[in-house]
């Protein structure tokens, strides 16, 4: 039975409602979102108090949330507030009216925020150990993930809004203001830097600031995949972007492709904070997380303790696959046939366990494009694979999956616009896996599971497939024979398909 929950995040810069539909422990999907730049952290660094206008903006947002929930029948709301509310002297001016509305926010501690960030990373990356940083408007949480669990962390007063208001008085900032901000970041992180340098681990960053910075870098470099989660933002790229932003006014920054207009003023402070962290910590890159605090909170609703999936890859592939459950019998048949072909050919051609994982995943989602239309469903499917957040899969792997779906039906496999994401040898990998997937699709051409027997004989010059079942699978043999030319180009051997 599918459930729904709404998560309301009263951040220091932006407030959001996100609504998830889910089957506990099995699959989930994001179904809606409300977003408003309430700027609860406005003026907080100087006064220590929530500004009256910021409180009014937040309460107006909560009223919109309440109306949305009533209109849509959303009964479960989990409301929480972070740094701005946590540190404000007059937080009750927001919390009391919110309680009277029936929306009582939990005020998260800095450690709770840090723990939720680690929970988000454990559900979004195939990493065992990492540093996790979440730079918001009012604070930044720096945490250690060990064996996919929270191993300590805390909040620092290094949010983008806070740093902007405290240090960057001019537009664009003066060099002395930049130096003062960087000194503050290093001073605040002084206790953490020795451990960062000792434990050389991947750094995963989350939050709107790093996503904006990464998108700007992607746009400038014409990155071929519109996907932020899992993107490796290099220190060199961040340095170049930061220097560019430092020369521009806020009005000019609003026109930089990839940057949100409502962050144009504070984005420089966030960029400087990240640049300082990467420099001081000796990091050459960071990995952008599309998951953050809200996803960490959601995983507590969705998954039983310890609230993280056994396999990140499997969960998010199942999320995509589950949207097209009516295709399950056919896809299972194609999967079994493709793996049978792979296992017979892998020893001869040195195909790897990684190749098998890619082929199996592609077989499971190869027909998702049928939900759009039969014609060109291979192209529709490739688009859906690229647009879906396949957490745990690298951008290269996601590109290969999309290409396998794209060529499971017809056409000669080519990387096309996705070529920059691939590595040496991937074109050969694509050609071989695509023909195996296409053969499996053709051996399941009638979509009835008629092929019960598949024998693969690998000779010196020829591969012979002997295909049979209780019924004569004539159309399957007829269709599979059409793949002989593609097979020979990929494997260098002739292909014969015989009905038995």
UniProtKB/TrEMBL annotation:
<dbReference type="InterPro" id="IPR043129">
    <property type="entry name" value="ATPase_NBD"/>
</dbReference>
<feature type="domain" description="Ppx/GppA phosphatase C-terminal">
    <location>
        <begin position="312"/>
        <end position="467"/>
    </location>
</feature>
<dbReference type="Pfam" id="PF21447">
    <property type="entry name" value="Ppx-GppA_III"/>
</dbReference>
<dbReference type="InterPro" id="IPR030673">
    <property type="entry name" value="PyroPPase_GppA_Ppx"/>
</dbReference>
<dbReference type="InterPro" id="IPR003695">
    <property type="entry name" value="Ppx_GppA_N"/>
</dbReference>
<protein>
    <submittedName>
        <fullName>Ppx/GppA family phosphatase</fullName>
    </submittedName>
</protein>
<keyword id="KW-0378">Hydrolase</keyword>
<dbReference type="InterPro" id="IPR048950">
    <property type="entry name" value="Ppx_GppA_C"/>
</dbReference>
<dbReference type="Pfam" id="PF02541">
    <property type="entry name" value="Ppx-GppA"/>
</dbReference>
<dbReference type="InterPro" id="IPR050273">
    <property type="entry name" value="GppA/Ppx_hydrolase"/>
</dbReference>
<feature type="domain" description="Ppx/GppA phosphatase N-terminal">
    <location>
        <begin position="19"/>
        <end position="301"/>
    </location>
</feature>
<dbReference type="GO" id="GO:0016462">
    <property type="term" value="F:pyrophosphatase activity"/>
</dbReference>
């Amino acid at each position: 039975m599918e459930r729904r929950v709404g998560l309301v995040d009263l951040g220091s810069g932006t407030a959001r409602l996100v609504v998830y539909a889910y089957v506990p422990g099995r699959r989930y999907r994001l179904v809606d979102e409300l977003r408003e730049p309430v700027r609860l952290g406005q003026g907080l660094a100087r006064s220590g108090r929530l500004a009256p206008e910021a409180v009014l903006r937040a309460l107006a947002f909560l009223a919109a949330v309440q109306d949305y929930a009533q209109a849509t029948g959303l009964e479960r709301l989990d409301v929480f507030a972070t740094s701005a509310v946590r540190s404000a002297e007059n937080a009750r001016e927001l919390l009391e009216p919110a309680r009277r509305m029936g929306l009582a926010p939990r005020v998260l501690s800095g450690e709770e925020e840090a723990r939720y960030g680690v929970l988000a990373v454990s559900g979004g990356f195939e990493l065992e150990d990492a540093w996790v940083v979440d730079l918001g408007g009012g604070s930044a949480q720096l945490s250690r993930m060990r064996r996919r669990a929270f191993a300590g962390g805390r909040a620092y007063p290094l949010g983008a809004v806070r740093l902007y208001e405290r240090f960057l008085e001019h537009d664009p900032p003066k060099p002395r203001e930049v130096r003062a901000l960087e000194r503050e970041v290093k001073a605040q992180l002084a206790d953490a830097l020795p451990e960062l340098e000792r434990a050389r681990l991947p750094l995963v960053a989350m939050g709107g600031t790093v996503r904006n910075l990464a998108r700007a870098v992607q746009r400038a470099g014409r990155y071929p995949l519109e996907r932020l989660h899992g993107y490796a933002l290099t220190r060199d790229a961040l340095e170049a972007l930061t220097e560019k932003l430092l020369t521009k006014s806020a009005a000019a920054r609003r026109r930089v492709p990839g940057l949100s207009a409502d962050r144009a003023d504070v984005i420089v402070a966030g960029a400087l904070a990240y640049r300082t962290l990467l420099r001081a910590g000796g990091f050459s890159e960071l990995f952008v997380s599309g998951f953050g605090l809200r996803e960490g909170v959601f995983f507590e609703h969705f998954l039983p303790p310890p609230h993280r999936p056994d396999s990140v890859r499997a969960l998010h592939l199942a999320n995509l696959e589950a949207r097209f459950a009516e295709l399950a019998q056919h896809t299972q048949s194609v999967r079994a046939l493709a793996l049978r072909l792979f296992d017979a050919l892998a020893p001869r051609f040195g195909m790897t366990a990684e190749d098998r994982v890619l082929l199996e995943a592609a077989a499971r989602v190869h027909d998702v494009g049928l939900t759009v239309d039969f014609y060109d469903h291979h192209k529709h499917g490739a688009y859906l694979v690229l647009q879906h957040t396949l957490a745990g899969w690298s951008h290269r792997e996601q590109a290969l999956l999309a290409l396998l779906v794209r060529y499971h039906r017809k056409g000669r496999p080519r990387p096309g616009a996705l070529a920059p994401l691939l590595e040496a040898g991937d074109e050969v990998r694509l050609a071989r896996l695509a023909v195996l997937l296409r053969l499996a699709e053709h051996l399941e051409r009638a979509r009835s599971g008629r092929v019960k027997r598949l024998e693969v004989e690998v000779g010196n010059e020829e591969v012979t497939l002997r295909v049979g079942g209780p019924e004569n699978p004539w159309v399957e043999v007829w269709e599979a024979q059409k793949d002989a030319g593609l097979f020979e180009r990929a494997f260098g051997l002739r292909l014969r398909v015989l009905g038995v």
